[in-house]
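protien #1 (seq + structre)
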Amino acid sequence: MMSCVAVSCQQYGESVREAFLSASGPEAVAGDRPILLKPNLVNASPFPVTTHPDFVAAVIEAIREHTSVAMVIAEGCGAMELETEEIFVRLGYDCLSEKYGVKLLDLNHAPLVHQENPTCSIFPEMWLPEVAFTHCIVSLPVLKAHSLAEMTGALKNMMGFPPPSHYQRGGWKKSAFHGRMHRSIKDLCQYIMPDFTIMDATVGLSQYHLGGAECCPPIGKILAGSDALAIDRMGCELLGMNWQDVGYLR
């Protein structure tokens, strides 16, 4: 199974399908487990801050050519003033859900399970949504620079899972992760990792994850594969960064 591929993107449909097939996506999602599609919907800002619903639609179509298992689109936003369900509506995910018959799940309020890992220095125990352990996780991030993590992609996208009931310290719903960001991401990924990733690197945000300058020229790529770390390292290089300078990627 190939760990990571990069495909030039002219339009989502054909490029997402090509990336999914080239990176052995059908094998990665094979089996009886339902599939959890995890976009990056950190707040209600449109693409390229958040994952475009048309991109998710292309992923659904590509996957459904190979399996009929149930799928759910799941996210737990980090926004201070909004709930995930409101963001689903503002960004058009409610229409996407209705069109494809794929349910929406707010991870911030999903049933939880307690996990322990004494090798983790920041989070030797964690509360996480039960679906993180019952579903095949397909991470669908957008490629962006990040003010605290240097870059955000497949691995940092897992921060949508931890619930604010345990990890909100003040404003942002996942703020417990912000103080020691790199080590926190590493710890989180000791508990949950994507089974497969398809990253929208068609544009790219070059300086800041919540807006700011877009990459010029646009990157024009779709990245896909079963190795989320390899994808993030490739994405980092596409942003003009050395992944060895990014703590959680190193």
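ok now protien #2
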Amino acid sequence: MASSFHIHNADGYEQLMGRWSKELAPRFIEFAGISGGEKILDVGCGTGSLTFTLASFADLSEITAIDYSDIFVEETTRRNSDPRIVVRQADACALPFEEGTFDRALALLVLHFVPEASKAIAEMRRVVRPGGVVAAAVWDHFGGMSGMRMVIDTVAALSDRGRQLRARYCFQPMTQPGEMSQAFAEQGLISVSETQLMVRMVYQDFDDFWAPIAAGEGPLGNYIGSLEDSERTRTDAAVRDAYEAGHPDGPRSFANIAWACRGLVP
């Protein structure tokens, strides 16, 4: 499962996105639904935000967490102390499980970074039993991530490369209204429904917001890391100015909206 999400270390990911995943996980689980005794597959587990939240929500019989990244697999394994949780390296587009193995397959903030997202949905459907649930959530990149759009629009104002980045970012696969539900239906899932989930995050100061991106984490961090020194200095200053918005550095609150979709295996 090649991914367009770039990660260097688990701590950087936590500061960039793991903190958001932890906020979103309970809302996503409520939408996807779970029942005691079920076997759940967490596709693209990252550092385990959904995995460990699932473990605290219900008396599940088994949670299998997979990720393509060795960094994520190692970190989730290190954090795990629950015997019901099994963590392994695997490709979302070629899941190493028999048909109908799980009661539900869930993917939190993953599908928009999978180039063959439809194949991943088909694989999730394959490994879930008839009557089971496939569910996923992705960020609304165009209109639902105020903090990231602040940065993306800032870099777009500085260069042609920044504008190209914005064009890719805003229209990543599965991030437009109705796009996931259409993909779910095309892969044969039934009773498909889609909704919006909103969470909010407070950053203590500009460094809390910018440090993981400046360190090269995520797609935006990968772009920042590719800049020449002078352009990097100019970009850092412009983003800081946008964050501060004419006031002293300090706490700022941003909201993110995710599209969430679920369907039943016929």
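The mean pLDDT is 94.
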